[in-house]
Specification:
7 helices, Pyruvate-ferredoxin Oxidoreductase, domain 3, homodimer
Chain lengths: 195, 195
Amino acid sequence: MKDDRYEIRFGGSGGQGIILAAVIFAEAAVYEGYHVCQTQSYGPEARGGKSKAEVIISQSEIDYPKVIKMDLFLAMNQAALDAYFFDFKPNGILISDATFVEQLPTSRAFVLPFTRIARDDLGKEIVANIVALGAVGRLCDKVSMPALEKAVSAKVPAKFRELNVEALRAGAKAADTVDVSLLPRSIVSDEEAEV
Amino acid sequence: MKDDRYEIRFGGSGGQGIILAAVIFAEAAVYEGYHVCQTQSYGPEARGGKSKAEVIISQSEIDYPKVIKMDLFLAMNQAALDAYFFDFKPNGILISDATFVEQLPTSRAFVLPFTRIARDDLGKEIVANIVALGAVGRLCDKVSMPALEKAVSAKVPAKFRELNVEALRAGAKAADTVDVSLLPRSIVSDEEAEV
């Protein structure tokens, strides 16, 4: 059986809510029937504006719980992008925030205005992580929007549910403006890329 | 150098907030300068009333991010206790909730009324996880109460900060009624126990 392990890394500064985004994604993947591992690792550098969280999903049991090669990397700021860009699959996708990321290390990348959407369209910059999560959900094509909405609703206080579901939808809508199939593909063959 | 790896598992039903408790503990350990790995793994069984989250802390870099042998296990219900009790260190400590745990598989255990304290003393059963976290913090002796309070405050909405800090303190106070040094010790020597 082909290994269907799918690996996502979320990177950003401490205040950007990337752990919550990863936890919500993990929960949504559980609803979809996947085996899921979700981790965060912190060193002393966690206090320096960059942190990361990871989610592995698979149809079968997961042996190693951390990212080996990323299929998708959400980078909410430049420091996290620079620090955690290694381990990228040749045909992995980078999704980054337009407000806090300036330099892209790959052409297989989308820059979307998560923070601006959260601030200007939703009036709460703090939900930029959930806007980004909506885009991640749409672009990775592993979890459905209903599963993500249910997971968001389970993980945020009742009072903030509506705002967060709106944020999720705004992110999915932003992702609909881009097309993964139009990204330049790595010249590495798919077989090599699987290694 | 002696490996100072310290391993904690949190188990409970989905609604009991054990992931949040683990994330907050992990954050507090970062404040204390530790290297920290925090994970949750879900299989299809996650929908059946038991889930687990783990935190590894160490003074040095952490190679394997999941529990190998537990130093401390917080069990918030019987299903999680039964499912995740394996991998216990001979001198590990089990902390369990009086409301939802009836049978203890070890004498190195404390039963404390986290859910009752949350419900009756604080008026919100939903903070039982944070009450338990206060007891875990006090009994593991790896993170200070100020670090835990800071981490709780960073992870819950402003509106619920006071309640959650109160919950933490109530849990620590409950833990002060028991004494780890009075627990029966395993007859396995410390050297063997380290394996």
